[in-house]
Amino acid sequence: MIRRHAEGERDLRVGDVNRRILTLIVALVPIVAFGVLLAVVTVPYVSLGPGPTFDTLGEVDGKQVVDIEGTQTHPTTGHLNMTTVSQRDGLSLGEALTLWLSGQEQLVPRDLVYPPGKSRDEVDKANNADFRQSEDSAEYAALGYLKYPQAVTVAAVSDPGPSKGKLRDGDALDAVDGTPVANVEQFTSLLKKTKPGQSVTIDFRRKNAPPGNARITLGANPDRGYGFLGVSVLDAPWAPFAIDFNLANVGGPSAGLMFSLAVVDKLTTGDLAGSKFVAGTGTITAEGKVGPIGGIVHKMNAARAAGATVFLVPAKNCYEASSDKLPGLQLVKVDTLGQAVDALHAVTSGGQPPSC
């Protein structure tokens, strides 16, 4: 009887252990399932946060970020850093929660970054095109501020097209068949008198090269009845030297202001930044108007982390920027390139620039 009682107790203990194991397994199943969901399931959100900054007065990969060849440039000091926003797509649920809890990242619906109907590749190409346009606008704004005269300037050469291999982006067009042209309106009026198949001589100036001329046989374009030269042109300030911007994999137009300031700084005596670490952001038009950008707070955080003490803010971003001021970071309001230059002079001389 005693042995049977001991065996019964042992059976009870084994059964109790089995029930505990089963309970543990049942409890672990949703935990494991949730862990799998965190790792595997992606969310329709993109994370935005502080990105890298680049000193437009410095070098990247052994090249000057703003490289000017063919004219005298002047030494610069301090920093004029452009700022960026980092972007992460294809986030798992776990990654999204981790980034959100960090407090440093912002989760936005993916459709705001990659609109429906457009692939990621299409959006990236559009951003890269915006960045290249910002480089051109930055050059024109800087040259306009420095009072270089305007010319009929080649913005792009069609490929294929009648002018391919004969004219280049950046050429200044001075005459058509010997008739001088001072602006795009005069240039276009002369072309409207031509016919497809007709040959014309274009007198041009090329950066870092002597003036030249090109004999071009005009093509046909279904959008017009006159001869097709195969170039897009605009009235823009023109200089005989070349300005190149050597940054890759940076999309969007928000570097325009800082690029323009670097050009002005290198082409003039004195230092815009002095000994200051200045960072900033803002689009810019060819006329020098500074426009608003997205992600201003992320860019401010990136600038402060890099060591900046002064941050240039587009006037229309001032409200958002001032709502999240960072200790030790002076916010300077700018609306035009000229105002930005004046504000930097005030900063370096101990004056009071416009602030947010």
UniProtKB/TrEMBL annotation:
Keywords: Hydrolase, Membrane, Protease, Serine protease, Transmembrane, Transmembrane helix. Its EC number is 3.4.21.53. Pfam families: Lon_C, PDZ_2. The active site is at S254, K299. Residues 249-347 form the Lon proteolytic domain. PROSITE patterns: LON_PROTEOLYTIC. It catalyses: Hydrolysis of proteins in presence of ATP. The chain crosses the membrane at residues 21-46. Belongs to the peptidase S16 family. This is endopeptidase La. It comes from Mycobacterium branderi.
